[in-house]
């Protein structure tokens, strides 16, 4: 029992330190970008894109803040600009879908890169298909005349002012502590499931669904964790598995495509619903779009030579080892 705990602690420290190497420098960089007003510049550049999705240009600031920081940062921008009083439920649903597709990109893209995916390609997947989602959802809701009523905000944060430097530092430390224990808990659960044989049954049960998409059964459990809890945790487990097993590189890429388009289904989706988004758009439309898009990407890439696709989608082994 003691040896088991030591092994668990060792694996947790290794995975958590790997995440910290990504999170800490990027968190500092993001804070500097916020300070120098870089996010506002991105928001202004996104204004034409917002109009394609049926949204006012000011929504670009919300999406830019979400992409550079996280969901909570985007929510703060949303309430600060008082957009809840001028948007319809349909428009809030579209904006929230954009936020769900592409948020916390500096950290989450680096995690995908650590697992072996090309950073620029993962950015195009999440940003590009985020735009496609917004355009398609706008067309569908406008044509069907759905959710055109004024938005009704369900929850609003009581404090909107920017945190002081000390508050920000303490908040970051708290976040890193939470990450450590969540990673430990997930790894403990994975060990129990593996030893009990439940993991194999779980994978077999999901194999008909995710197998249709072309995702290797070895990464199905970790992908499900990413879908439910987020890329930070699902990605950390996939990185660990790829270090221990010979998992096909393209299967890791496909898993990150699916997780990138549809992850943290529980927490993030509930936050978007609290902003006034309709749950059918946030849960059902988003999931169906992610599954269909991943299926199409798998089918299209398999029409070409695997080595050619790997050169495009996967970082070279030499570079990965040099950066390990």
> How many individual β-strands?
0
What string gives the helices and strands in order? HHHHHHHHHHHHHHHHH
Range of strand content: under 5%
Q: Please give the share of residues in helix.
A: over 70%
User: Termini, distance in Å?
Assistant: 31 Å
- Average pLDDT taken over every residue: 83
Query: Which residues sit in consecutive blocks of at least 5 with pLDDT less than 50?
Result: 318-324
User: What is the makeup of the main sheet?
Assistant: none
Number of helices: 17
Q: Estimate the global geometry from the Cα principal axes.
A: globular
Write down the Rg.
20 Å
Class inferred from helices and paired strands: mainly alpha
The total domain count is 1
How would you describe the overall organization of this protein?
The chain has 324 residues and is mainly alpha-helical. It has one domain. 77% of the residues lie in helices and 0% in strands. It is built from 17 helices and no strands. The protein has helices at residues 2-35, 38-45, 47-52, 59-68, 71-80, 89-101, 105-114, 119-144, 165-196, 198-213, 220-229, 231-244, 249-261, 267-274, 279-301, 306-313, 317-323. The two termini are 31 Å apart. Residues 318-324 have low confidence and may be disordered.
